[in-house]
Amino acid sequence: MKKPKAWRILFRLEFAEALRSRWVLFTAIVYALLFAGFVWLGLTESSVLGFTGLSRVVLNMANAVVLAIPLVALVATSQVVVRARQSGFFELLLTQPVRRRDWFIASVASRFLMVVGPLVVLFVGATLASVFRGEDTSGLMAIVARCLAVTVSLAWAFLGLGFWSSSVARTPERATVFALFLWLVSSALHDFALIGALLRFKWPPAVVFGLAAVNPVETARIAVLGSVDPELSVLGPVGFWLANTLGPRMTLALGIAWPASIGVVCLLLAQRRLYRADLVG
Predict the structure, then answer these.
(1) 173: containing domain
(2) Could you tell me which residues are beta bridge partners of residue 48?
(3) Residue 35: how many CB atoms within 10 A of its CB?
(4) Residue 48, helix vs strand vs coil
(5) Nearest to 156 by CA among 272, 36, 263, 35
(6) 211 CB contacts (<8 Å, ≥6 apart)?
(7) Successive 10-residue mean pLDDT values, the chain, 281 residues
(8) Which residues have C-beta within 8 Å of that of residue 226, sequence separation ≥ 6?
(9) What is the pTM of this model?
(10) Is residue 180 domain-resident?
(11) How many domains is the chain built from?
């Protein structure tokens, strides 16, 4: 009988620990509250840009989750490495016939499943509910696929940022501060700084978009808005420039590729530090 690989065993261990600590339950409750808060809006008879019923639920849910996912992912990952170092888990790990790479892959996979799993269930549940209600699901399926791809990519980005902050932090308290700072910068401070700069300087749309797209949250938000309004008229001159220069397909591709790239780079940096740093602190 073939023995399971070490990372699979560690994955089951890490995910079981997440279940015991109720992180999956916490993530599901956050997403469910957001979903329930927008259900009443999507089930009304009014329409916005031609979207009614559960398609509006999915769109509004995606816009809300764009702000919630970074916080959930950072909270779920910012303590992983630093707490394992301080608790003595790494000291125990070094006595076992496993590699650091196995533990790192297992930790990333378990946290990714914990953050993204409940989200996928809610989006699929919205689609199934639409089928049972007898709605036309041809357009809804495309909206669900687009919003899910963008939100999963954003979750991957902040998963990487969370592991990186946990790998460079000396204490769990510093890791928490790093995580909160990253969330505030991406969700609020970046917007305020960009708006302040726009009020003072008259930059061309290409520069404004470039500064906004540095933030993966803004890139994901623009990609989600493209599902509602391909012309992106709500963004004014910047939206007009985006619609005519990049188009909806390139906007979607950027909204998926850029956050995913950030996640990959941050995970590689976290892995490199984990390999080179002392595991016992």
Answers:
(1) 8-276
(2) 51
(3) 22
(4) strand
(5) 263
(6) 194, 197, 203
(7) 68 77 68 63 46 53 72 86 80 76 88 85 73 63 80 92 90 87 78 66 70 80 71 61 73 88 94 76 54
(8) 146, 232, 248, 251, 252, 255
(9) 0.81
(10) yes
(11) 1
